[in-house]
Structure formats: C-alpha cells, structure tokens
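Q: What residues go here?
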C-alpha cells in the first residue's frame, strides 16, 4: 500500500485538518511530519469542534494510529494537555505514538522566542512565541533534547549541563530574563517522560512496518509551502519544511513509497504574522472574508490577514510538492460577493515577474487581477459538483488551470460531509469516500 501526503499550498491555514480527517477514513495511520504546537488543525464533526496542535487529526477516528514523527518539535506540556482534553471528550489517546527522535521544546526555548520577538517589536517575524525556532536551532546545533532523552535521567542531565549555561547566558545577558534552574528542569522533564513513556517508540520503524504490512499511511504537514524555510517567503517563514519532501525526512518514508500528494488550498488567501502579502485586503471585502471565514488562528487566536486568491506562487507550489490532486476549501465563504478577483501575475518596476521572489521584492509588486462575477447561492448544502452555480464552477476551473493539477475535492462548509468529490480517480488509487456522494 502507498503513502499519501497532505500539504498546504499557501501560507498555512488552508484547512488541512479537514482534509486529513476526510482522507483518514481509508487509512490506518496518520503521521505528523514537521512543525510544533505553533500549528493548529480545526476539525468539525457535527456540533463538535476539535482544535488540535500536536496530535494528528486522525486521532478522531478509532481505527487510526496517530503518529508524531521525528521531524516534529514537541512541547510535552502542550501534548499532555491536548491528550487530556481529548480524553475528557471521549477520544482514546492511548493509540498516539511519539518519535523518540523528535526534539523537545524546552522552557528556555519558549523564553528565547518570546524575548527575541519582543525586542524586535514591529520588525519581528511574527512567530507564535512558542519556542519553535529556538528548538529547531538547537537541533541544528546538535545541542537539542530529544523525546527519548526524557526516559534516561543520566543522559538528560549530561545534555542539560552542556546546553543550559549557554542558553541562560543569552537569556540573562541579552534579554534580562532570569536563568533556568537545572534541577527544576530535570524534575519537569523526567515527569514528562514518565507520563509519555508508553507512547514513545521508533516511529520510522513503526511507519515502515505498516507500509510493509500493506497498510495505507497518511502524512500530514503543518503550515504551508509559502512558509517553508527553503521555499517560502524567507525570512518570514517557519523553521521546518512543510513541503511534501519534509514528509520523507520527518515522517520516515522514502520518496518512492509516496503515491499521492494532496495539496490543500483555500478559495482566497490568508496569512498570519509579518511578511509580504501582495493581495491583502484592508477594506469591507477583507472584513467579509475575516468574519464569514472565521479567520482567527487556531493556536493563537490572532486575526488572519485576508486577501484575494494569489495564483502567482501556485504553479511553483504544485511543482515542488509533486501534487497529484487538490482540495479547495472555503469556496462557500465567497458567496454573496458581487465580484471576485484572482491574482494571475505581478508587475514590478513596470515589468511582469514570476515566482520565486525575495521578500523585499514581494513588498513592492503590483498584483495583476482577473475579475470573475460572483454568486449569491448558499453552497453549504451541495453534494454534487454539477449543482454548483455556474460562476462558482468557472472560478474553480480557473484556479485549476493555473495550478496545473486537478481540483479533486471542494469543501463547501466546515463539516466532514460538506465536501464535493469532483474526480476521485485522481486523488489516490486506494482512497475511498464511503459517506460522500461522487460527482
């Protein structure tokens, strides 16, 4: 059986949680492959809304093994709190597995992140201040603490004795923050290990065994392609690789084991935090998208910046992720707008330019728009593509043509069953949708 990757094609917040939840019906394992609790997936099932930050969305299906892969940075406090919340709501979390090689977000990482962003003030990156960047930096410096270390007191103490004086010096000398006490950190860390010990495994072996046994594995990323540290709008990016290639390194699969990559888009554009956003709207239409789309961050509650769909980076995102099919979310949010604009190009200093561009260039580009007539119909009850308003169908077709990949799924509402399947054959040869009508 193959592995399938779900990847965001914009600046994150595309609705990957719903996509993963939908596809999870036909798989046995869902693997989160990068990021940390700076990400958030919202899944709506009937009247129930689940906001997840670290636990893979597949946990909501009782047949799924949810896996936190080695490419993720884990705040154990967040993970334990999230699992406790799920247990209180009747969700079994004993199936969760955490890579022993995943790096731990330590309290000093969080303080370093907060202090650095506070000092930069309006010139900051706009991080969630959750310690993600400093944890990935320590991983690259080879001074990080890994989940498996929480089970070995002697090795943990040795590693903390090596790194803590350096981190405390930066916190104290550069930011005026009180240093962390080694013994208190040891107490907390060993308690995290005690509570997580039954969940900690070698997840690469776990994933490879599942694939060898003929099971279908789904790998989900956090954030989106345009926030990728190598392919995004650097430096206004995350600290890891959300692109599909990150699923191989962070999830423990080989490139030839991936048979489908589902790219996720929203029918308009949003981004959180600082950074260039050529199609941003700061008018009544932007407020319409914000309020009707409930564009508030799952993790921080921050208002997302909203704008017209930007197709300029789309073909690039589809290409570097080898996208085989696209899920387009929130088309219903555009209902009621008299006209809809689609950015098809940029003009910079009088000439047309293409992606990729540097952040300072993106701040100066002038978007080139194509305008589409809007529609008034309520789309949230639709189950067949042929019943979409003609103007909505034309807009979807235009995005599909610009993407160079088929839009196989269209979401018309937040719930699992508010989804139209346009072309199931192009998603994955093993994916089934038992509760959805097929167009």
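A:
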């Amino acid at each position: 059986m193959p592995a399938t990757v779900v990847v965001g094609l914009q600046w994150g917040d595309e609705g990957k949680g719903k996509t993963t939840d939908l596809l999870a019906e036909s798989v046995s394992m869902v693997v989160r492959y990068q990021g940390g609790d700076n990400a958030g997936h919202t899944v709506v099932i009937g009247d129930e809304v689940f906001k997840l930050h670290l636990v893979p969305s597949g946990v909501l299906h009782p047949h799924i093994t949810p896996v936190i892969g080695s490419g993720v940075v884990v705040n154990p406090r967040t993970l334990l709190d999230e699992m406790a919340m799920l247990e209180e709501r009747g969700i079994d979390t004993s199936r969760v597995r955490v890579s022993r090689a995943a790096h731990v977000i330590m309290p000093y990482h969080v303080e370093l992140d907060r202090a650095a962003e506070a000092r930069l003030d309006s010139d900051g990156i706009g991080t969630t201040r959750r310690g993600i960047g400093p944890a990935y930096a320590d991983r690259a410096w080879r001074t990080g603490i890994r989940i498996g270390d929480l089970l070995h007191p002697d090795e943990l103490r040795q590693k903390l004795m090596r790194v803590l004086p350096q981190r405390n010096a930066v916190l104290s000398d550069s930011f005026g923050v009180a240093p962390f006490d080694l013994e208190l950190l040891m107490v907390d860390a060993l308690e995290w290990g005690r509570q997580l010990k039954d969940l900690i495994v070698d997840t690469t072996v776990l994933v490879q065994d599942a694939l060898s046994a003929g099971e279908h594995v789904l790998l989900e990323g956090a954030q989106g392609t345009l926030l990728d540290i190598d392919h995004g709008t650097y430096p206004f990016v995350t600290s890891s690789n959300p692109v599909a290639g990150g699923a191989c390194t962070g999830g423990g699969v080989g490139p030839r084991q991936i048979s489908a990559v589902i790219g996720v888009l929203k029918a308009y554009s949003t981004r959180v935090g600082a950074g260039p956003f050529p199609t941003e709207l700061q008018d009544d239409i932007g407020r319409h998208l914000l309020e009707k789309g409930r564009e508030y961050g799952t993790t921080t509650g921050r208002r997302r910046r909203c704008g017209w769909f930007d197709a300029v980076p789309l073909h690039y995102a589809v290409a570097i992720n080898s996208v085989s099919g696209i899920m387009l979310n929130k088309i219903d949010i555009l209902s009621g707008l008299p006209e809809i604009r689609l950015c098809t190009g940029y003009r910079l200093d009088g000439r047309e330019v293409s992606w990729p561009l540097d952040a300072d260039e993106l701040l100066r580009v002038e978007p080139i728009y194509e305008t589409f007539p809007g529609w008034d119909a309520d789309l949230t009850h639709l189950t067949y593509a042929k019943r979409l308003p003609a103007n909505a169908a034309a807009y979807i077709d235009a995005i599909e043509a610009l993407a160079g990949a088929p839009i196989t799924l269209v979401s018309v509402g937040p719930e699992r069953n508010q989804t139209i399947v346009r072309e199931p054959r192009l998603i994955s040869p093993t994916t089934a949708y038992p509760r959805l009508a097929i167009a």
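A: Context that may help when evaluating the design: The first strand starts at residue 3 and ends at 8. Residues 3-90+202-426 form a domain with the Adenylosuccinate Synthetase; Chain A, domain 3 fold (CATH 3.90.170.10).
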